[in-house]
Each structure stands twice: as structure tokens, then as C-alpha cells.
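sry for the spam today, last one i promise. C-alpha cells for design, 132 residues
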């Protein structure tokens, strides 16, 4: 299923700008592949916070995208929370039957930034998919 990426919820002091990320993945033809996952937790308590509401901004031309809830482990950069299992949302891509070649799509989600009040910012992820 691939590595699970758990995004850290960092305490921030100020308004966070919109974030954009580009992800390139090679996937096998005829297989559903987890190409990305995101989840947040409180670094002080190691407890999960609300899961993001993912949305497809640009659909793939040669496949489909599905969002699935799963469990992921906090990695080595998680400090005292390392190894904790937390909920996350996965982005899964399935190429069209018989398709091989390049495809792409974009996903966005709102994330919360906690300051003296709760703020939101929109993050977007653009995927470049190579179907082999």
C-alpha cells in the first residue's frame, strides 16, 4: 500500500499562507495505489485532531481517485509521539483498464492553524502519475 505520510500539526503564531505541494508517483497498471495520505495530531498530547475533508480539484483523465480513512504511524520526526497509530485520510488512484502512460490530478483540503483564534488555510496537492 506504500508508505503512510502523517503530516504534523504544528503550533503556529500567525496566519498561515495557502500551501501547495507537487507529488510524482509511479503506479502499476490495473492496480489501486495509495499515492498520498494526511492526518494531524497534537504534538503535546499525541492525540488526533479532525481529519481533513479532501476534494478533487482536477480529475484524472485516465483513471479515478478515491479517499479512504486508514490508520498510520507517526514517523521518526514525531518526537515523543513516534510510533503512535493515528487516523489519516488516504488518496488512492486507480488507472483506467488497460491504460499505461502519464496522468495527473489535483486534490485540496482545508487545514486549521491554531493561534490565539482558529484560522483555516487551503492546501493543495498536484499529482503527476506515471502508470507502468
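last one done:
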Amino acid at each position: 500500500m506504500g508508505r503512510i505520510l502523517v503530516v504534523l500539526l504544528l503550533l503556529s503564531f500567525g496566519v498561515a499562507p495557502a500551501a501547495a505541494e507537487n507529488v510524482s508517483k509511479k503506479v502499476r497498471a490495473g492496480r489501486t495505489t495509495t499515492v498520498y495520505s494526511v492526518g494531524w495530531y497534537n504534538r503535546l498530547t499525541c492525540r488526533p485532531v479532525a481529519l481533513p475533508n479532501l476534494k478533487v480539484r482536477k480529475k484524472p483523465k485516465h483513471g479515478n481517485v478515491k479517499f479512504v480513512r486508514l490508520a498510520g504511524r507517526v514517523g521518526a520526526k514525531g518526537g515523543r509521539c513516534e510510533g503512535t497509530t493515528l487516523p489519516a485520510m488516504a488518496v488512492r488512484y486507480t488507472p483506467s483498464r488497460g491504460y499505461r502512460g502519464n496522468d495527473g490530478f489535483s486534490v485540496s483540503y482545508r487545514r486549521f492553524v491554531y493561534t490565539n483564534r482558529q484560522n483555516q488555510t487551503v492546501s493543495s496537492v498536484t499529482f503527476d502519475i506515471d502508470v507502468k
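Residues 1-17 have pLDDT under 50 and may be disordered. ok im logging off now
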